[in-house]
Specification:
Strands 1-2-4-3 form a 4-stranded antiparallel β-sheet, covered by helices on one side. The chain is about 40% helix and about 20% strand. Helix 3 packs across helix 5 (about 110-125) and helix 4 (about 60-70) packs antiparallel against helix 5. It is globular and about 45 Å long. The chain has one domain (about 5-145): Trafficking protein particle complex subunit 3 (Muramoyl-pentapeptide Carboxypeptidase, domain 2, 2-Layer Sandwich). The protein has about 150 residues and is an alpha+beta fold. It has 5 helices and 4 strands. Strand 3 and strand 4 (about 140-145) form a beta hairpin. The model has no long low-confidence stretch (mean pLDDT about 95). InterPro entries: NO_sig/Golgi_transp_ligand-bd, V4R. This is 4-vinyl reductase. It comes from Fredinandcohnia quinoae.
Length: about 150
């Protein structure tokens, strides 16, 4: 089977149900299916999937990646700190916003891996994103430390 491209995924021909699915379904896939259903909360799976998605995005700059991240309703990303080989990306209005707080739980690793994959593609070098804050943990936003 040939690989799918991100552009091909935009071809939606649903006459009755439109082009969106409920956030509850996404949450169920992410939190019940992956986080609860896979070993180690699905960390290696979500990292692999997220990187692959990020690398496939049709973006050529960090700014384009952040804009697409928001237009896909993943969240509203903002670079809040920038150093020579590191940026801190804060994500407001993440998919987990509003879920019950569970101290010690960071559940948005897939979304960080999407950023990681996109940044790796754009910068043409290995990038690592680590989730450091999460709404589910009781933090006011989700946040990622992205090392280049």
């Amino acid at each position: 089977m040939d690989d799918f491209s991100f552009e091909e995924l935009k071809n939606i021909n649903r006459k009755k149900l439109s082009n969106s699915v409920p956030l509850e379904l996404y949450r169920a896939i992410r939190l019940i299916g992956m986080y609860q259903g896979l070993p180690m909360h699905g960390k290696s799976t979500t990292a692999t999937i997220g990187r692959k998605i990020g690398e496939s995005l049709p973006v050529n700059s960090i700014n384009e990646a952040l804009k697409l991240f928001e237009s896909l309703n993943i969240g509203v990303p903002t670079i809040v700190d920038e150093k020579e080989n590191e940026v801190i990306v804060q994500v407001d209005d993440c998919f987990c916003k509003g879920l019950p707080h569970k101290e010690g739980h960071l559940v948005c690793d897939l979304e960080g891996a999407i950023l990681e994959g996109a940044f790796t593609k754009i910068l043409d070098k290995r990038v690592r994103a680590k989730e450091t804050k999460c709404n589910v943990n009781g933090d006011s936003c989700c946040e990622y430390q992205v090392k280049m």
